[in-house]
Amino acid sequence: MRVLFVSFAVLIIDQVSKIFIKGFSFPILKVQHQGMYEGQRIPVLGNLFNLTFIENSGIAFGINFGIEFKFFLSLFTILAVIVLIIYLIKIKEKPLSWRLSVALILGGAAGNLIDRVFYGVFYGYSNLFYGRVVDFLDIRIFNLLLFNKTLGNYVFNFADAAVTAGVILLLIAYNKKESTSGLENYFADNKDVN
Fold first, then answer.
1. Range list of H helices, 23-145
2. What residues contact 130, with CB distance under 8 A and at least 6 apart?
3. CA distance linking residue 131 with residue 113, whole number of Å
4. Which of 26, 133, 138, 154 could cross-link to 56 by cystine, CB 3.0-4.6 Å?
5. pTM for this model (two decimals)
6. What is the rounded CA–CA span in Å between residue 19 and residue 3?
7. What φ, ψ does residue 151 adopt, rounded to 5°?
8. How far from each other are the two terminal CA atoms of the chain, in whole angstroms?
9. What pLDDT digit, counting tens, does each position of 14-33 carry?
10. Active site amino acids
């Protein structure tokens, strides 16, 4: 189960980066970091890549179903993390690419889960389960305004990147398995022809 270290690494990188962006204070240790203010944008690579601090109260890509669904979204995320842990344990004999993809998805889901469940309480703006996800990696590929929504601008975090990478890797691993299984079946079906 060494792939769980990948999930843990994603979780740590995600949370450390978010806390650094949002800011923190440990009065007992006399340590404080101001962080960024919401909406602040720091160019890193011209206009292509920026650090832009926003908080997302919904799901991916800013989709928001309203405050009444926030609690259920948090519960769903908890359930998804539990299912992913169980699934990762069950597939311990599967190829590494398969397990690695699930580990990336698990780490990303857990990272955003911490924001949703605890950040409202930690940062004093809401109750348990009603936190907002911190996003700050801002990629501006192009600007296209469609139905009052700007397309081509994506603000996300390391957890989102891990989930996306995990899903892509899972699709590649699945397609590779299917194409391999198809060849094996073809040769098995045609071995008596010669």
1. 70-90, 96-114, 120-122
2. 67, 70, 71, 74, 116, 120
3. 9
4. 133
5. 0.85
6. 25
7. -100, 150
8. 44
9. 999 999 999 999 889 999 99
10. 135, 160
